[in-house]
């Protein structure tokens, strides 16, 4: 699986290539799915470009995407603490959603992660457990009674250095252990995005790529779209897998 991470917490300051409005997001997702993305992770944005868990914005974003892509492509959203400070407020937002994503990511190192995950499960939304390197997320997740119930683990390598990101990825996977037997999606960010994606290929793990994780192509050139990143990502992952075989 190659998941598309559409926009992340990026803003207009990162350039016009980053889709922010529901319509721009839907166009970008449709192009990336045509390029080979099989799953979508998106950050719905307010009109001023801020991440939000607002039911109105979420519904508009999901409606726009689902009008452009096949129903077989799951669409997920963030529940990051920066989008709605306070665990109780995040839970309240989830309970107020009028349209539901297929899955939502929960960063396990954030306060209230268990409550947020439980609220999603109660609403029938699958949970992606976001486990960041450099945090206590892996240890907390190993002890979590909800661990066996998540859809997958997003092993996120926050080390942006291409020289050390692979080592950071190995260390994170070791801390995760069996991950409650759940599938693992391994990815990096910024300078570490491509080395970690290739490692995922060598290990046969799912991965993700998109403008949330990097604005650069493997050769260092500026990406012009999510579709371009997905095309490069599927190629790099497959080449790494063939090298392993």
Report on this structure.
It is a single chain. The protein is α/β, with parallel strands linked by helices and 245 residues long. Helices cover 38% and strands 15% of the residues. The chain has helices at residues 22-34, 55-66, 87-96, 113-122, 137-142, 165-176, 193-203, 226-244; strands at residues 2-5, 39-42, 75-78, 103-107, 126-132, 152-156, 184-187, 207-209. Strands 7-6-5-4-3-2-1-8 form an eight-stranded parallel beta sheet. Strand 2 (39-42), helix 2 and strand 3 (75-78) form a beta-alpha-beta unit. Helix 1 (22-34) packs parallel to helix 8 and helix 7 packs across helix 8. The longest helix is centred in the C-terminal third of the chain and has 19 residues, at 226-244. The protein is globular, with a radius of gyration of 17 Å. It starts with a strand and ends with a helix.
